[in-house]
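ugh finaly. both done.
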Amino acid sequence: MDLVKEKDMPFRHGDWGIKYLFRGPRLDWGVVVLRPGEKMGAHYHEQVEETFFILEGEGKFVVDGKEVPVEAGTGCRLEPGERHDLVASPRHSLRGVFIKTPYLPDDKKAC
């Protein structure tokens, strides 16, 4: 068994961004926190499926150029090849979890 406490793991940008809780051997699993107006960063995966669940706040997914509003309680599954970004609303922060599978840490391409 692997056990982790979220508070012990670092965010990519200090107090916000992506935070991995588990990396491999079969999936990546983590937390994303975006401050008001911040973006995750547009990207896509050639082989990895990525799933998000929004826990708090509101914002939008931009998937292949289409904007889709999201709020707490929204789930989104992205197929390999779908270009995507997650953007917090200008008025609210956003907090969610993500799962990427299979575990292929180099399968991320910037848009």
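ok and the 2nd:
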Amino acid sequence: MEFSAKQIATFLQGEIVGDENVTVHAFAKIEEGVTGAISFLSNPKYTPYIYSTQSSIVLVNRDFVGEHPIRSTLIRVDNAYEGLAKLLKLYQQSKAKKTGVHPQAFVASTAKIGKRVYIGAFATIGEDAVIGDDTQIYPNTNIGDGVQVGNECILYAGVNIYSECRIGNRCILHSGCVVGSDGFGFAPTAEGYEKIPQIGNVLIEDDVEVGANTCIDRATMNATVIRRGVKLDNLIQIAHNDEIGAHTVIAAQAGIAGSTKVGEWCMFGGQVGIAGHSRIGNRVGLGAQSGVPGDLKEGSQLIGTPPVEMKQYFKTSVALRSLPDMLQEIRRLRKELNEIKQQQQLK
């Protein structure tokens, strides 16, 4: 499909600088732009590319001021990155969606399947499962007994949802993710470890995205809860009875131990680890590889193990690089001090 600069600017409520009739049919990074593509400039680091890119249209922030001539037609918007996201979503929605049940899929007789649903080959839908309208379930996905999946969801190939779990509307679950596996609960005995039955479930609210190979464990009792708008990257572990607050985003390889409550609008970098039974306030930011042993107050912006304020962490990092020189200086001063003491003893 082709779109003109005028159509795009109208959709994004942007301002055109250049040819309003130029058309595009593809997306490209600004440094790899070609004729007929649309790119965007949001990060100042990539500003030099705007003067050489071959992209026909470039989205820029309204406050962008060019220092050299620019070949491309510009569309000024409030937020170029957000504008690109809207265009990509529009492009994706314009593609024809698959519908129908593949003859090699298994759907239990008691399952309820909504309208315009797609179920791919070798997918299984368990007893009493409910699948909402316009949901797409790709091959080799397993939906357990009693599972409820909302409207307009996408479950990519190889997703596994254990029994009785609940998935909201417009959720995206990527390949290999597991929802509702047993929580890690074992009671020590004289003979070893006795498994504690995990009889709860997982509740995922609307507009949640779960990355590939991420695991969300079912609760021992009640529910492990992922609130609306949460975005989980690949290879994340969410343990039993956790609650992840609305619109929180967590990067890859993070791990949240059991019975931890995370607030709303938090942002966690890759490989963050949080101890069990912790309470994390709203709008907490944690840098990559932070290790959190306990509670954190609302609005904290921390990094490290144990985490400290980011300014303090970076000051400490700079100081650590100076430690070898400081150690040599201390040794030199100690030697000089000992020599002075020896001289005084000889007098």
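summary for the 2nd one i guess: The helical segments are 5-12, 80-94, 310-321, 323-346.
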